[in-house]
């Protein structure tokens, strides 16, 4: 009996130790995961998102300065410089367009930077009416911000500097041309104010959006929610590229193609925009990036022996393929949709983007063990 009692005690002790070790290891695993998720969040926000907003603001300042200079001396050279600054600003916007949460939702900033798609040609009609009326008092910034969001951003600005006879209308010395220039300056200044508001809302020390997110990041689930939310935004960007920027102008056949549905088709920036969109998405998965990104996280929290290949690597490869397909286009997208040689390239690109979107879904399932659900930060 005595020996049996000793054995029983030993078994109980062993079971306790095993249970303790399992709990201890589990807690250690949670601590490691929490550290990795927080490291990811800090890296993505601090090294990709916030710098992109800084660049947007800097390019908005340059655009506004050029608008002022061009209107003081409205000649061919300054008109070209204005277009260059416009292109640069749009390119910087495309680098952060995907982040449709937080400060970009406040005061309708997303739409006030770019109102698109414009299904009913609202911007053109409203802008034409304002140019006819020539009410200079509406160009005061406090009143300008009360106008329709469509006439406040790059969609309207593109019409002013890439529309029919834009150069002639810009360089003519008359009241109508002067008002057009004032309108260009009003838009460019508005973009400067909006982009400054965006970066300020992100980096404010007390309640900046970055600090709000990261200060709440003291539990594993909250840490994971931030990453899932970013993945959801990236997935949404791929869907926007596929559905709105390509399929919409493609339509169902070459005969029914709608070239003017392409994004910023007047300026010929539609292809460049998609290139920048994809380049930004790639930063989040690039295996060669110095930033601690989704590729590094996958290696930290997923047993690679369970996978045939890193999902982040697959995503990176699909983005590279997409860029190669874009490089094969010999025409801008608004012309390519109706061209027998270029249209099949766009159709292949749509297929690649579909695979890319599915891989982002797969990444969320495998690494975060969660589907892409509702947005936990904006209540959608």
Could you characterize what this model shows?
The chain is mainly α and 380 residues long. It folds into 2 domains: 48-210, M75 peptidase, HXXE motif (A middle domain of Talin 1, Up-down Bundle); 219-367. Helices cover 69% and strands 0% of the residues. It is built from 15 helices and no strands. The protein has helices spanning 2-72, 76-94, 109-113, 122-133, 141-144, 154-162, 166-171, 175-203, 209-215, 220-250, 270-283, 294-301, 311-327, 333-336, 343-367. Helix 2 packs parallel to helix 11 (270-283). The model is unreliable at 16-31 and 375-380 (pLDDT under 50).
End-to-end separation in angstroms reads 66 Å
Shape: globular
Q: What letter string, H or E per element, gives the SSE order?
A: HHHHHHHHHHHHHHH
| Total individual domains | 2
Q: What is the tally of helical segments?
A: 15
Q: Output the structural class.
A: mainly alpha
Q: Which fold name corresponds to the CATH topology of the largest domain?
A: A middle domain of Talin 1
CATH class of the largest domain equals: Mainly Alpha
| pLDDT < 50 runs, ≥5 residues | 16-31, 375-380
DSSP strand (E) fraction? under 5%
């Amino acid at each position: 009996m005595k020996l049996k009692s000793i054995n029983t005690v030993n078994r109980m002790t062993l079971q306790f130790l095993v249970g303790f070790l399992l709990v201890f290891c589990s807690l250690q695993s949670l601590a490691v995961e929490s550290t990795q998720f927080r490291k990811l969040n800090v890296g993505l926000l601090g090294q990709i998102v916030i710098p992109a907003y800084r660049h947007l603001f800097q390019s908005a300042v340059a655009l506004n300065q050029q608008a002022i200079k061009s209107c003081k001396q409205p000649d061919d050279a300054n008109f070209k410089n204005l277009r260059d600054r416009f292109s640069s600003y749009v390119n910087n916007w495309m680098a952060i367009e995907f982040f449709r949460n937080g400060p970009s939702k406040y005061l309708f900033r997303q739409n006030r930077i770019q109102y698109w798609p414009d299904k009913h040609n609202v911007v053109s009609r409203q802008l034409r009416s304002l140019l006819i009326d020539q009410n200079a008092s509406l160009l005061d910034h406090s009143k300008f911000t009360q106008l329709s969001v469509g006439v406040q951003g790059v969609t309207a600005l593109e019409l002013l500097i890439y529309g029919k006879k834009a150069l002639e209308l810009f360089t003519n010395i008359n009241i109508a041309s002067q008002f057009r220039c004032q309108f260009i300056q009003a838009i460019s200044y508005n973009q400067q104010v909006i982009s400054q508001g965006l970066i300020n809302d992100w980096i404010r020390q007390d309640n900046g959006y970055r600090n709000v997110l990261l200060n709440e990041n003291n539990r594993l689930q909250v840490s994971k929610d931030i990453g899932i939310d970013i993945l959801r935004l990236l997935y949404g960007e791929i869907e926007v590229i596929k559905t709105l920027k390509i399929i919409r102008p493609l339509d169902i056949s070459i005969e029914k193609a709608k070239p003017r549905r392409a994004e910023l088709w007047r300026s010929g920036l539609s292809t460049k925009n998609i290139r920048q969109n994809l380049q930004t998405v790639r930063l989040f998965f690039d295996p060669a990036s110095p930033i601690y990104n989704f590729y590094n996280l996958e290696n930290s929290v997923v047993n690679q022996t369970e996978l045939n290949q890193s999902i982040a690597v697959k995503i990176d490869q699909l983005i590279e393929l997409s860029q190669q397909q874009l490089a094969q286009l010999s025409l801008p997208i608004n012309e390519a949709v109706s061209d027998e040689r270029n249209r099949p390239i766009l159709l292949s690109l749509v297929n690649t983007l579909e695979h890319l979107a599915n891989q982002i879904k797969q990444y969320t399932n495998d690494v975060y063990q969660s589907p892409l659900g509702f947005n936990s930060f904006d209540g959608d």
